Amino acid sequence: MIKSLHLIWQHLLAIAILTLPIAQMTIADPPNFTRVTTGPHVNDGGASWGVSWIDYDNDGWLDIYVGNSGVENNFLYHNEGDGTFTKITADPIANDGSRSYSHAWGDYDNDGDEDVYVGRHNNMPNYFFANNGNGTFTRIDTAGALTIDSACSNTHAWIDVDNDGDLDLYSQTESLSLPWSDVNVMYRNDDGIFVRITTGEIVTEVNNAHGMCWSDYDNDGDMDLFVANAYFDYPQQNPEDYMYKNCLYRNDGNFNFTKILSGPVANDLSISFAPSVGDYDNDGDQDLFVGNGAMDLVNFLYNNNGDGSFTRITTGEMVTNATSTLGSSWVDYDNDGDLDMYVTTSVDSLSNQLYENNGDGTFTRIMNGPLVNDVARNFGPAWGDYDRDGDLDVFITKYQYDNRLYRNDGNGNNWLNVKCIGTVSNATAIGTKVRLKATIFGNPVWQLREITPAASYCVHHALNAHFGLGDAGIIDSIIVQWPSGIEETLSSVSINQYLTITEGEHTLVPDDEANPLPERYSLSMNYPNPFNSSTSIEYGLPRQSQVTVTVYNLLGRNIRSLVDRYESAGNYTIIWDGKDVSGKPVASGIYFYRFEAGHHSETKKMLLLR
Predict the structure, then answer these.
(1) What is the pTM of this model?
(2) How far is it, in rounded angstroms, from Cα 391 to Cα 549?
(3) 420 Cβ partners below 8 Å, 6+ apart?
(4) Tag placement on the chain: N or C end, fewer CB within 10 Å?
(5) Average pLDDT of each block of 10 consecutive residues along the chain (610 residues)?
(6) Cα Rg for the chain, rounded, in angstroms?
């Protein structure tokens, strides 16, 4: 009898879950983007490649820094706070003649302002500039190997590899001809002196890197690395002869990395330039998009399974439309609470592409507006809210054309923009995870943003966590997970604001040394069982997870949700008082409670006797 009831329950529960209301999914008209045509930042034609949104003078307004690979100096544009920019030419970072592809911004000395590492091309020594704190910079030549080594550099990133509170640096290099001969380099920050790391595949393997993403893809608290590999001067005919595998390196701590050899991320062949990470399905882990740079190659989308593995998505126009991708960005451009994808192409005859997230794991291509109808050698798309109106704008570099700035004029959806300041962690807060819960279009939604230094190829987005909130009237909770291991929670946060969160100033969730963390997900039998008034339910989480615990009756009907939130690793106990969602006592009988966390689900039976 019990076995029969269990089979009936499984069948009914499957039907009930399949028929549960789906979150409201509406695809509104795309926000109105206006191309800005006045000002030096959109009229300086050059051999522009890399671009950064950065508030270099800490006045609250995002400035623009552009790397040029030709004879021009790099461009620095100061945001005046009124929609205009002034070109800065007197500072060393704007007149060094660096011939650079890209640059990395981060507060290497934790003094409250962001410094810049400028990678130079053609095997010239790279440049390192310290921020003086007054809007000017000083070139540093005494920082160890960082300022001595020469390479043909493209993309760079500041990252706290070992979570010791200061920023280390990773730099990609490329070979100018076959066979490949260069290796990527990593420098450990030892009190402002940088020591080159020389062991491990991450710095000894010969690749031709063209883009990278640092992200904690396995949610274990440290930043892992994805490297896109490509030969830049591949022929348009027979590009398959120049296709290579990309690289995924798992951070095992203390500058030790393991190269992942299994799965599609590590084994798909292509000519890859433009990787981007983002939690597009709002399930609490980072997914990966890889843009491929040949005309007849499709882009890759990998869904994170939550257990350290990925599944490649092969349906939908976003991954079946062949194009020559040189830039990509996950961005909630319409502030509806999920991440969309923007793709730029370097081919003169092709336009950029914008894919709207439908909220169900699929995407719809947006065909109208200047953002998707501009052609001519588009490189990096960098997103940031330069006019502080609550939506994200985009700056796009163009090789040998005027660069582009598109202002997002919005659509009325709500938003939150978060700046994190580390105290125990690195001051720039790189590696910090910000998780936010709000009810959007009638459904509770968790979103994840990670403060990451570099995306795509030669792109540096604003180091803020931006959340679209749709019609949400209040933010239920924000959980900040710092690289130091400190976790802080904010509740009932107002919408439509710029919020600064400083490490150590909010509710701490300390580790409980008396209760070791569970090694796996677990759900215990409720106690007592049977029960006549209330019963306790215990479960364990080996890592931070989105958790739901729901009570169902024999017909598979949802009686009450006991838990629906993001929780830290640990052991938990909750009480069910035998009442439904309206607070009314339910009748005697058999009930089931279902526990879901990460990709784990488990159901147990309980008996209520009144």
Answers:
(1) 0.80
(2) 35
(3) 429, 432, 434, 451, 465, 480, 482, 500, 501, 502, 503
(4) N
(5) 35 35 42 90 84 93 89 90 96 81 90 90 79 94 78 80 95 62 85 92 82 91 90 59 84 95 92 90 94 82 94 95 84 96 83 93 93 78 95 89 92 95 95 96 94 77 94 93 90 92 70 62 90 87 88 93 84 88 91 91 91
(6) 25
